[in-house]
Design goal:
two-stranded antiparallel sheet; alpha+beta; single chain
Length: 168
């Protein structure tokens, strides 16, 4: 009887040692409330150097803003530093900087706010060393081109943004 209990206890210890918790993907939340999932190392793709796909996936093409704000957060500044470094490595690219807003507010107010966001980004990029002649256009779309449809804070946070679009 002691042998059976000892065997059962050993089996339970071995079974417990083999169990593991499921792996979860880390979630990154921006200061503006936007969330993204960090890529799994095994699923990271390789893109052609200097391609639009590489820029969007590896550097990031957008920064986010707080409600009714156009100042650059430390996270936004970090993204723009990476963008300028990448753009300086690939001088054939020029950029259009788009300012966007969430759906709240009047059309006129959001067009003005989107322009302030785009200009804040453009000015910061020039201060970091990007040749101003490489900025083809700074434009505001206000609330006219939402990235995410919805009328909740999650959607609003994704739509309060400035986007760097590569052009040649």
């Amino acid at each position: 009887m002691k042998f059976k209990l000892l065997t059962l206890a050993a089996a339970l210890v071995l079974a417990a040692a083999c169990s593991s918790e499921p792996e979860t993907e880390p979630v990154v939340t921006s200061d503006a409330g936007a969330t993204t999932t960090a890529p799994d190392i095994a699923s990271v793709q390789s893109y052609a150097p200097g391609s639009t796909e590489e820029f969007v996936a590896e550097v990031g093409d957008r920064v986010f803003f707080g409600y009714d704000r156009y100042d650059l957060t430390p996270e936004a500044q970090s993204v723009l530093q990476r963008q300028v470094a990448w753009l300086n490595s690939y001088p054939q690219h020029r950029v259009v900087i788009e300012g966007h807003c969430d759906e709240r507010g009047t059309r006129e107010y959001n067009l003005a706010l989107g322009e302030r966001r785009a200009n804040a980004q453009a000015n910061y990029m020039v201060a970091l060393g990007l040749d101003p002649n490489r900025i083809v256009q700074v434009i505001s779309y206000g609330k006219e081109r939402p990235a995410v449809l919805g009328s909740d804070e999650t959607a609003y946070a994704q739509n309060r943004r400035a986007v760097t679009v590569l052009s040649q």
